[in-house]
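This part of the workshop introduces the protein records we will be handling. The structure tokens are whole numbers drawn from a learned vocabulary of backbone shapes. The record below serves as our worked example for the rest of this section.

===
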Amino acid sequence: YPLDSHSPRPLMRLSFALLSSALRSTTMAAAATTAAKALPYPLKGATLNQTMMRVKDPVRSVAFYAKYFGMTLIHRSDHSDFSLFFMVTLPEGDVAPEVGTDAAGEYLHSGRYGTTLELTHNHGTELKPDFHYHNGNKEPRGFGHIGFLVDDVYALCAAMEKDGVKFQKKPDDGNMKGLAFALDPDGYWVEIIKRGGLSPIVGRPSFQQTMLRVREIKQSVEFYKEHFGMTVVNFLDFPQWKFSLTFLATVTDEEKAKIPPVGSDEAREYLWSIPYATLELTYNYGTDTDPTFPGYISGNVEPHRGFGHIAFMVDDVYETCDKMEAKGVKFQKKPDDGRMKGLAFA
């Protein structure tokens, strides 16, 4: 899908996307912001910028993420047969420009909010009673969930349940107590996690993670580290259940110096306190050595569409893609393919 016509910074999609950040530093001045605190994620180089999910009815979905998770709609982009809605956890001190204005577009492309949840609406789906998207958690699997840190998991879940929100897992269900998985209007899983005591954000939810299942964990981690400068924030291993979780993020050098040793109790506390979004890679033991394993789906092929991509904002899409292609990375779309110039899907 195309970005709106005044996009100043190329983007790459993963299906992940590469977006440009050429005007990121100049557009920040146009955004309505009074924030003075240093941001933990960089505003140059590669930054984790978005998670895209397709939704049946944007009115319901936007309201859901605004009401229960405090997200702010910072921009929408309407096209002939689809619309895009961008929601974020606003940094402290930032005031979102009016949606639909040039200032809103500039704020979106500044990237200073960190990572946006991009909701894609293909027009007409809301009128089809039996229409639904694949949430990635039924076979064939792939995308897992998005997640938010909150002050009180039990209180939020009780309020959501009172409103009729359905749950895949309530806080005290199963082996992992104190966390929950709510179902959004399209059935996507939304993890609700107790915030750690080191967080600078208090009193409101914050967008903290996007989970993808990967077949080969070492190759996947190295891919994101090499091409997008991601840092491993923590690693959690659950041999009793035969899976592991690796959390990566794009952070500044100053923030990187604060990260405790991976695997430590301090790293766990840091992970649940961070004010930015992570990429969570889930590895189920044996998928890399099982010759019969069919692999995971991307979410972009019928009849299993749903999750669309993650995206990184970069300073130069063409240079980034050239370097990736030289290393053997395959592309769904190169920067000059098709009618959408200057963005790529690797």
Observations:
- Residues 151 and 202 are 7 Å apart (CA to CA).
- The chain has eight helices and 16 strands.
- The first helix runs from residue 24 to 27.
- The longest strand covers residues 47-55.
